[in-house]
Design brief:
The chain has 406 residues and is of the alpha+beta class. It contains 16 helices and 13 strands.
Length: 406
């Protein structure tokens, strides 16, 4: 419906059609030229390859994210439409839910991961960052993904969650499966789901109340069952949401920040001269590299978006990464500037579905970059970085670096 209430005739022909596959390996290797093509083609485009609408400009991506009643998540935030096909796993009560159900479960996680809770764990997270930097200074040359971006969150977050020590090697592969599954039925998705059984089994078991240490984030979620805020069936699914939301965003965010600071030594110097810029350096890396590249929504009614008429039940693909470099919104969008005012970037989403792990990611990113900048004079790339291909995430598989102590 239009604002006046009259019905809208869907007109696929009226929007620019593009022969672009945003889930192809060639696209993942270098998405930027295609992002520009998508933004310049129009505010709303149609991607024939997967029969979906696409939005790549900041204004439209922001509008879709902030209108959950029209662009819903409960029909899946990937290409598959849960109204028409069975989800590959029980849907997330956070990511794949709409109000009012979403409002209730989200409130629980917001309490468990509140700014107050982050203040309480801050010293512990900062101390773990110092321990990690000690280990890196002994090595001097290392892989900034395995030894830093992954090793640091894995050394602190599973403990904070209350997970048992055994089996944690499943955590990163599990998150990778979840994000690959949002894509189309391509090789990445098929292989991820085929390999997912042991990771899924581990996660399902660890999310049960009896397996979580008292006092951790996981136990705090289960405590809400006793207060009547959630049911005993919902609690493990909410812990599961935390497992994927609290780890992959952080790993890819820290990896992106180190990659940026190694490539732009002037920004590294700036950070070393003013450690209060650590939070900004992390935030700008999330805008600049956009660890989460895309998400889908499904229209709940006929709608007009920036002059384009979209029917009910259509998938709309939001290019978060393209929006984060839209020159209509950002000055010099393709430069990494740690003093930039990044507020409003959509690297963690926007609106009611904004990344539930964002406060954890921001805290870990800030204390890690502070610890690095305080004690390291130079970070130099010492070999060819390798990409890790994923239908939704953008990150590195390997980033060989050499550091010089301060």
């Amino acid at each position: 419906m239009t604002a006046s209430g009259s019905p809208v005739a869907t007109d696929v022909a009226a929007v620019p059609h593009l022969d672009v596959d945003p889930f192809a390996m060639s696209f993942f290797a270098d998405p930027y030229p295609t992002h520009e093509l998508l933004r310049e083609a129009g505010p709303v485009v149609y991607l024939d390859k997967w029969s979906v609408y696409g939005v790549a400009r900041y204004a439209e991506v922001h509008a879709v994210l902030n209108d959950p009643a029209t662009f819903c998540s409960s029909r899946g935030v990937g290409l598959s439409d849960f109204k028409k096909e069975t989800p590959w796993r029980p849907p997330s009560l956070i990511l794949e839910a709409d109000p009012p159900a979403h409002t209730r479960t989200r409130a629980v996680l917001s309490k468990v991961l509140s700014p107050t809770v982050m203040k309480q764990v801050r010293d512990r997270f900062a101390a773990a960052a110092e321990v990690r930097v000690d280990a890196l200074l002994e090595k001097r040359s290392f892989d900034a993904i395995a030894d830093l971006a992954e090793a640091y969150p894995l050394s602190i977050f599973p403990d904070a969650l209350g997970l048992k020590p055994e089996g944690r090697e499943h955590l990163i592969p599990y998150a990778s499966v979840v994000f690959n599954a949002f894509g189309p039925p391509n090789q990445l998705r098929q292989e991820a789901i085929e390999r997912s059984a042991p990771h899924q089994a581990y996660v399902a078991e660890q999310c049960q109340r009896e397996n979580l240490a008292p006092g951790g984030f996981g136990a705090c979620i289960h405590d809400r069952v006793d207060d009547g805020e959630i049911t005993a069936t919902e609690a493990p699914l909410l812990v599961r949401s935390l497992l994927s939301a609290g780890l992959d965003t952080t790993v890819n965010g820290i990896g992106a920040a180190v990659y940026c600071l190694a490539r732009f030594p002037d920004q590294w110097q700036r950070l070393r001269e003013d450690l209060s810029l650590a939070r900004g350096a992390f935030e700008e890396a999330v805008r600049f590299e956009s660890p989460v590249q895309t998400f889908f929504r499904t229209t709940t009614r006929e709608v007009e978006l920036s002059g384009a008429k979209i029917g009910e039940g259509e998938k709309v693909l939001m290019f978060l990464a393209a929006a984060n470099r839209d020159p209509r919104r950002w000055d010099k969008p393709d430069s990494y500037d740690i003093t930039r005012r990044t507020s409003g970037h959509v690297g963690f989403g926007s609106g009611i579905h904004m990344c539930v792990g964002q406060l954890v990611a921001r805290l870990e990113g800030e204390v890690m970059l502070t610890a690095l900048a305080r004690r390291i004079a130079k970070i130099e790339i010492a070999g060819e970085p390798k990409r890790r291909f994923n239908n939704t995430l953008r990150g590195l598989d390997s980033l060989p670096v050499t550091i010089t102590p301060a």
